[in-house]
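@channel sequence for tomorrow's demo:
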Amino acid sequence: MEILLGIIVILLVISNVYLMITMQRQNRKPESNPQIEEIRREIAGLQRMFTGVKTRGIWGEWQLGSILDEILTPDQYETECMVIPGRTTRVEYAVKLPGRYEEPVYLPIDSKFPLDAYLQYEEALQSGSREMAEDAAIVFKNRVKSFAKEIHDKYILPPYTTDFAVLFFPIEAIYVAAVKLGLPQELMRLYKVTMASPASVGVLLNSLQMGFRTLEIQEKSGDVWRVLTEVRSEVDSYEEVLLNLQKRLEQSEKELDMLVGRRTRVLKKKLEMLDDTDWQ
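structure tokens (generated this afternoon):
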């Protein structure tokens, strides 16, 4: 079902573009051509299928979840997560990053699907009317900015979350259109929100995964260093014990030398006295 929805979205975009190109080539009103009229009816049916916010939302959420599942492990992200304590709002996905005191810091990622505004913008571009294109661009930009503001207001609150969040578009065409309109810089400046698509979010998550591995190595390195520190401390203590023992042995040896020397001299003197005695 999800794959079918993706195919429908692609066909919807292609059909809109094909319709406008055909109309321009024939320089005729769409009503005057039965084939074009049929295409319009098919497109209208596809648009009605995706008119509901819920339908688009399910598709976008599934697309994002599939990507997260491929790149991250289950313990590295949460679904329908309350990222801010005391609030009931839940973000679709939140990547868990290491924080202070063993508490995670969440990176909120929310999928949005402004399909209607995007299609209107594409149709306006194909129409050749500069005024229509500019008006449609404003509508599209405002829709995307409203999504970014919603994400900012609901899901960003350091230190519980990162100081930015991710707005995910489930199809590349919408992402590309937003980039061409200069939205990435504007969204980051106004709302601390960065945009992502199926391709770019993979790059972002791979970078985060590398960060996980680096932190893991650092944690293990810290464990090794603690062990080495303990071993060194034990070696120092052992060395001190050996030095004390060596000193005691040296002292005992001196005492033994003194004792042996003194007793030897006494015995020798007594023997000499015996030699001088007249036994006869």
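heads up for whoever presents: Residues 1-49 form one domain.
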